[in-house]
């Protein structure tokens, strides 16, 4: 394994030290994200926009995301996904779960305003 020296802010150093042997795996996960960065950007930009409950309820993936997910699901059913594509599909599922949780958090708003 290679050794790399990094300069990090003093307040971040204790957190990185606490990761110990897990740091290389965490860095790998960050650098080898299963989805293109524009997918994360779309979702994070939406959340950062402080959406209204109505906007949260209406939030949907982009057409490109839907097309890719449809392709991955079809190929998964056919058993032809690569390991990289399995990781990509799993990441889409994690994101979907987070969005569902976000929408469920709005449930009291919709019940009260129905």
What does this structure look like?
It is flat, with a radius of gyration of 19 Å. Helices cover 68% and strands 0% of the residues. It is an all-alpha fold and 114 residues long. The model has no long low-confidence stretch (mean pLDDT 85). The chain has a domain at 52-114. It has seven helices and no strands. α5 (63-78) packs across α6.
Write the layout of secondary structure elements.
Layout (H helix, E strand, L loop, with lengths): L12 H7 L3 H9 L5 H12 L4 H6 L4 H16 L4 H22 L2 H6 L2
Put the structure in a nutshell.
With about 110 residues, the protein is mostly helical. It has a domain at about 50-114. Helix content is about 70%, strand content about 0%.
Order of helices and strands: HHHHHHH
Q: State the low-pLDDT regions, or none.
A: none
Mean pLDDT, rounded to whole units?
85
Largest sheet: none
* Tertiary shape: flat
How far the N terminus sits from the C terminus, by CA atoms, comes to 59 Å
What is the β-strand count?
Answer: 0
Secondary structure tally, helices = 7
Strand content: under 5%
Query: What Rg, in angstroms, do the CA atoms define?
Result: 19 Å
Structural class: mainly alpha
User: What is the helix fraction of residues, given as a range?
Assistant: 55-70%
């Amino acid at each position: 394994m290679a050794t790399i020296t990094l300069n990090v802010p003093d307040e971040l150093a204790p957190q990185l030290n606490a990761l110990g042997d897990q740091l290389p795996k965490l860095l790998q996960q960050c650098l080898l994200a299963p989805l293109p960065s524009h997918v994360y950007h779309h979702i994070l930009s939406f959340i950062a926009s402080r959406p209204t409950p109505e906007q949260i309820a209406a939030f949907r993936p982009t057409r490109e995301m839907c097309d890719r997910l449809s392709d991955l699901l079809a190929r998964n059913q056919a058993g032809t996904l690569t390991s990289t594509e399995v990781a990509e599909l799993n990441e889409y599922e994690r994101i979907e779960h987070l969005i569902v949780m976000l929408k469920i958090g709005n449930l009291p708003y919709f019940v009260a305003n129905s």
